[in-house]
Model the fold of this input.
Amino acid sequence: MRKVYKQTITRAFTLVESLVAISLISGIASVGYVGFVKVQANSKAAKLKQDIAVVNNALRVYEAHGGDINENETPQSVIAKLKTVASEESFKEIIGLRESMIDRRLKIVMQSDSDAIGNNPRALWDHNRKKFRFSSTGRKGIKAFEIGDDANIVPVQETRNSNLKLAKKSNWVWDYEDSKLMTSGENVPVNLVEADDFSGLSSEIYDGPLELNMPSFSMVGGKYSLDFFADANLLISNPNPENSSRIFYTSDGNNWSAYNGESILVDPGETFAAISASMDSSSWLDSEVNLNTYTVDPVKLEVDLIAQDNPVNYRMMGGEMESGGEESTIGSNVFISLKNSDNIPLRFINSDNFNVIWSLSQNDPTFSEEGSVNKFSNGFLGKRVHHDINTWKGKDELGFQVVARSLNASIFNDSEIKKLSIGIQKLQLEQPSTDFGNNASPSSNEVISLFPNNANGALPKAWRIYYTTNGVDPGFDSFGEPVSGELYASGIDLSTVSGETVDVRARVYGPSGFGNWFSPSPPMSFSLNKWIVPEWQGYVGGVFHRMSVSTYHNIRQHLISGGVDASFNPGSGLNGSGKAIALQSDGKLIVGGEFTMANGVKSNRIVRFEKDGRIDLSFVTGEGFDNDVLALVIQPDGKIVVGGKFQKYNGQYRMGLARLNSDGSLDSTFNVGRGVHTDQNGWVHGLDIQKKGWSDEIDYSTDPYKIIVAGCFTRYNNYPAFSLA
Done:
């Protein structure tokens, strides 16, 4: 059987094909580029031709009004002569323009050597014909005619001498001076130089009316900068004989007005037409219309926004605050200004040419107008936009947008939209407090009150406290609102709280709807045990402390009802646990234990407090005990017997047992010898006074007593004594 195989061939471009494709693409690109260059060059050439025609027309007018152009002139000197004005003496005899023939700001830009080599368009001065001509080859010429920025150029006066002057001695309208020799019998104009008597002479060549000259404008039509129109006053001159004509002009093409020599303020985009109208139709015909249009490149408006305050806070925006802080203001402002007003003539800054609109949202103010300035003239003094707490409700930031919108496209373009974002400066609220600071063990029917604090003056009216009784922080979300807990209204009733433990957490928040203007307070927290204590009064020492309104470290005083006696304030208390307490007859309290400091004062294992909790500085213990005090007892004579783990008191050996005088000094008459000890060390855990008669009525001197010592020892002063002596 014959088998047929199908072969699949996959080909890419060869090197030759790739080079051909690249060449074609390059050729197309080159054609496009060359075309663009040619269009650009043609545009420049067309403008240069127009400028040459305007300058040549000015040259003809200049020569007709007595100006002199000789064959040695340069392009620069020709332009300089066209900028001159006729002197006062010349103007008395010559009918024509007072102003210069061209805009005095006109300047020429000469070609560089490289520009002159190619076929670039240029204007060349023709000495023979006394005019400029266009060329793309030849010597180096003028590259372009441009209008400069200096509008305050002082004109140079020039004395001109024209053959055509006002008639002074004949009855002709014009006299013509000709100093050339005349051939006898020729018909020549009247010659003021040759003769003074012209009686009987008349013209037989033409006896009809003559066409009047067009009026002359002091400003040539064209495109100018907007600054030029700040005081662009147009003057119109009549170049015709006196009483032969009158000038009429129009700026709308319909309504013509008689010109009486006044200055006419020109606006951008206006077209003025003027005509010399005959006052004697038998002698003069109306002139042609002189037409000039004045345009400008539109200026782009620029607006600016400045916030009086950024960021702002609740008080600043007029939010009501509790007394004790700064007074609230009534809001703030954003100022809108025209940023490029200094570059725009004052007379164009008015609501006929543009208006200013804004919005207080993220919407484009051009389409969502919330505010505008529609009436202003002779300058834009700016706009103050007010905002307060009502403007802000429900917002985390205020997005302000403004735009200047053109109402006259021939002068202005719309501005870019200017945006400004104003943020919130959150006020920090303070931790709340409670009236339950001095009662660590409430009864189950008590009510706990919570209060906000306003030390920093940041507390608003309509503040809120949220709390929990299960130890969970009420917390807050991104809007400053609580995420759990109950709104505090009139106290926390412990009878409604289940269990024996109350674990309170509470925070202060801003007013409802304005929580985002505040940083909620840090949480206040405290725990309570609901219990009833028996009726007793005394001191408690040990290892404990309580943090709430009041703090007690290892020592406190209770009332009979079990509550803490606030009149006894030991300050920062003991820095170690209290192990023994003894109350003197004068109410002072002696405490022993593991501590080394009492309310910040060095007190090694023993200290005496006044009745109000202050340290009794008259009780001087020196270096104190070198180890823990475990037992205290006060003898009837006021001396203090101390037992514990110590070996020394104020540097002297007293092995576990010592007696102090009432001023804190060591009683040297109480000599315990080796004290209590075992094979190693002995401890005293308990002390008591044994009276013989057991009567408080008998004086101790007639009722002797003994001291009973209990602890962890096997000997007392080397005598066997097993834990009791």
